UniProtKB/TrEMBL annotation, chains A, B:
Domain of life: Bacteria
GO molecular function, a single term: L-glutamate N-acetyltransferase activity
Native organism taxonomy: Bacteria, Candidatus Eiseniibacteriota
Localisation per UniProt entry: Cytoplasm
Entry annotation: catalytic residues: T189
Pfam families reported in the protein's UniProt record: ArgJ
Similarity remark: Belongs to the ArgJ family.
Quaternary state and interactors: Heterotetramer of two alpha and two beta chains.
Residues of the site described as Cleavage: A188, T189
Gene3D superfamilies xref list: ArgJ beta chain, C-terminal domain, L-amino peptidase D-ALA esterase/amidase
Catalysed reaction, written as an equation: N(2)-acetyl-L-ornithine + L-glutamate = N-acetyl-L-glutamate + L-ornithine; L-glutamate + acetyl-CoA = N-acetyl-L-glutamate + CoA + H(+)
Keyword Amino-acid biosynthesis attributed: yes
Listed name of the protein: Arginine biosynthesis bifunctional protein ArgJ
Matching InterPro entries: Arg_biosynth_ArgJ, ArgJ-like_dom_sf, ArgJ_beta_C
Amino acid sequence: MVPDAQPFDLAPGFTATAVACGLKSGGALDLALIAAGHPCAAAGVFTTNRVKAAPVLYDQEVLGRGAGDIRAVIANAGCANACTGAPGMAATRRTAELVAASLGCAPGQVLVLSTGVIGRPLDMDKVARGVAALTSAASLRGAAAASRAILTTDTRPKTASADLALGGRPVAIRGFAKGAGMIHPHMATMLAVLTTDAALTPAALETALRSAVGRSFNRVSVDGDMSTNDTVLLLASGAAAAPPDALEAAAFTAALTGACVSLAKQIARDGEGATRLVEIAVSGAASEAEAHTVADSIARSPLVKTAVHGGDPNWGRVLAAAGCSGAPIDPARLTLAFGAGGEAVTLVQGGLPVGYDERAASALLKRDPVRIGLDLGRGEARATVWTCDFSAEYVAINAHYTT
Amino acid sequence: MVPDAQPFDLAPGFTATAVACGLKSGGALDLALIAAGHPCAAAGVFTTNRVKAAPVLYDQEVLGRGAGDIRAVIANAGCANACTGAPGMAATRRTAELVAASLGCAPGQVLVLSTGVIGRPLDMDKVARGVAALTSAASLRGAAAASRAILTTDTRPKTASADLALGGRPVAIRGFAKGAGMIHPHMATMLAVLTTDAALTPAALETALRSAVGRSFNRVSVDGDMSTNDTVLLLASGAAAAPPDALEAAAFTAALTGACVSLAKQIARDGEGATRLVEIAVSGAASEAEAHTVADSIARSPLVKTAVHGGDPNWGRVLAAAGCSGAPIDPARLTLAFGAGGEAVTLVQGGLPVGYDERAASALLKRDPVRIGLDLGRGEARATVWTCDFSAEYVAINAHYTT
């Protein structure tokens, strides 16, 4: 049973509502509508998978035509509408038309998100009834309900907020996300919608979003798989302030990055079967890209993730994963520690094991979050990647997903 | 309990023997010696991991000095002698010296293999007693014993043989391997020793071995991890025939490839926690490299491997894994089938699901081996990768490996 989300609002200028339309079983919420009071600027970052779901292709088309007058995002869980060909694309267009008719805007002002099983047709009877219900008294109002409606194998809703001042006026960033499996850099079976009342052009939004995604959602790995449906949307109502200058834009990007990192960590923490969040911090790299490459290789390693699960300080697996990352590391310069701050335990220095307390090292792997720090001794750059431990429950969840 | 290997001999000119020296617990065989009656030609292919175990660095040094007069291979399981620095390299050299003294040859004529836990020192007292015992009456004679001594988490020995004629005379290829975890293209925690009585120069052996490894051991994935110790050695006694001509050399490479493919499939079949072998055959690619890239991406996907484990025909995961391989595939040209020959079930044509019998598709995922065939519709090239299903037992094995 998914717990209720904490009370949570979107940024001023946006409302959300959700219903159960039958795409999920058991009467669970599965259709969410995020609506803007006025046409707003939008930006999106999408999966780089060659196999893209219909809503991804559709949203890219909508945003490519001009992203200055978006009115709504409609999101369903329970069906990914991927590998569904022309009928799938028609279903996505029809969904947007239904929402547009209900809100009194053009279909090209509606963005669509889907997540769930690949290769099954979207049941348009259910979606049509759901869209009608979204505007009725039967709908569950509020972003907390919407954040629950988009979940699939997630065990909890994921929300984040950040606040800053632009032009001397307060600005809010509020968003939510889903994702628990098929999670890997360059996104995941992951949807996120972020809203703000800042006044930014679509181009400025896109710049900020790409930067934020690069250091948040693209630094999460649950299982190394990349989905057909990954989408992060950012909508700006402009209700709060005048367009920011360059300095303020940087502050906005930093605040947005903070909100995205929070969502990304919540996704990793809620990885299918996961019992704890694992933070892989690589430092001393020649470049940030190199640090990311090494951290990613460690985060992808099932042997590292199972060792963390068992609290087994099998540090050789961490070094082996770093060594096969493709980065030109020098084993003799590696320093490896578990934990952070005063409680950190150094296991390896100069590539060799040092005398350490095995019980203390094991205990640090049983904390939540687990912190694994690897210094490459090659430079000053660093990157952090978030993943989770790997349990037998992951297999149980995924061995019978469609059947 | 590891079952006994079937009676098995190395190629003429080679003998093998094994003892239990205490590196493994419970009195299991853990030290194997493969000896050549006369100095022989040798070639090796090694891990590309930047973190290389001492025996890998040592063997590369020995073969680099000239690989025409090798007399023996000493192999231990239970300790990888990786991340052990200068003392680890000294232990490897000392192991070779002990074997050389016992056989009456130079240390530079002895190759060394190690597999087991990373980062622990090799117990040289045990190795020294073991080497002495290998030449005593207490040792277990025969390649079958040696093939058991090198195992770690393997559940069964892995042996292969191939026969051909060179210059009108019969030639044998005989080998064995170990490997069950940390198995991924560009090798694995995988050791293999192949012997032949063919008369080939070290350079010709290396050419044949690189070609064979490229289409066998480098096409296996259990968990995407790459080890610090991977080594495949090929020794040629030259007892059988005169050096082959170019046509015969090609026949030798083909026979060697067959033996290596057999060992590679045995390794995938015996993947940690695996219940069946999975063969990913990608066809219709623009190049063999492209086919390999796509097949590898599918074989690495935990979502595909857990679906196979559960007999869940969740074909969307196969397409999603192909789509994020990096290869420029066109979703609209994909054809996907489970099974082979007359029993094959086509699930996807032109990128879209076709009407298929879900029960039949599920049944094909419960066969051993499982065959997944994906045609890219882009060209004529093909490649096959072998992996295994992914069970909860994998997690159980790896959560407490060192503790």
